[in-house]
Amino acid sequence: MDIFDFPPIAALLDGASTALAALGGVVTPGVAIVLVTIAIRTALIPLALATVRAEGHRRRLAPRIAQLRSRFARQPDRLQRETLALYAAEKVSPIAGLLPGLAQAPVLTLVYALFTSPTIDGHANALLSATFLGAPLGRHLIAATSGFLATDGVAIALLVVIAIVAGLSRRAARRIAVPLDPAQQGIADLLSWTPFLTVIFAAIVPLAATVYLAVSTSWTLVERAVMRRVLWAR
Q: Which residues form the Membrane insertase YidC/Oxa/ALB C-terminal domain (predicted)?
């Protein structure tokens, strides 16, 4: 059984489809996705603020963390306990940076389902015929292996935008990164490339989800730059 046919999930999809179709009656479906993305990211501003504050706290605590690493270099378990204790004492969450992404995961899954399911709650999915700048919102760029369409240029352009944003995000993250020991630095350098995984993901999901990712990642880049400038200047 397809999980999207499970009654509660099917009802949720049907409600989301109806709402998006209603918004699509005022603007085009593609613009509706952009507006919904902006609304979602606006609602997530408190989580983003918590993330940027946590980044600032980690930068502030970096010298003390370095001291702990030096003191307990041969006691990794003790180092972990002392580090977590320091975070707790300073009321800093080590997972704050993950919260906005985790909060968006259900939304991205919903968008994916809305533009891949042939039927929603027992009726034909009308959203599959919707377009963005003339490109079908339900089309996967990977489907272009069977022949490119002129409208696939829209998806390619969005992928370029996402790749540029990923590069700028990586550079910004490396600029504000706190010093680490050599072993951890190697892992951090590897993880710094993870924003580019979004490009790969955007290439295999429907164009509707690619639109969402392009708007959301661009929002994150600008949002973090503004928040760091304002909050860290205090």
A: 30-228
Question: Cα separation of 106 and 209, whole Å?
Answer: 12
Amino acid at 222: V
Three-state DSSP at 26 gives: coil
Cβ proximity of 97 and 54 under 8 Å: yes
* Sequential pLDDT tens for the chain (234 residues): 567 667 777 788 888 888 877 776 788 888 888 988 898 889 889 888 888 888 887 778 778 877 887 787 777 788 888 888 887 787 776 666 666 667 777 877 888 788 878 888 777 887 777 888 888 888 887 766 566 777 788 999 999 999 999 999 999 888 877 666 666 666 667 777 888 999 998 988 889 889 989 999 999 999 999 999 888 766
Model's pTM, two decimal places?
Answer: 0.78
Give the CA angle between residues 121, 122, 126 to the nearest 5°: 80
Angstrom CA distances, 161 to 166, 170, 213, 219, stand at 9, 14, 10, 12
**Which of 218, 4, 210, 224 has the alpha carbon at shortest distance from 108?**
210
Alpha-helical (H) ranges within 72-192 are: 76-89, 99-114, 152-176, 182-191
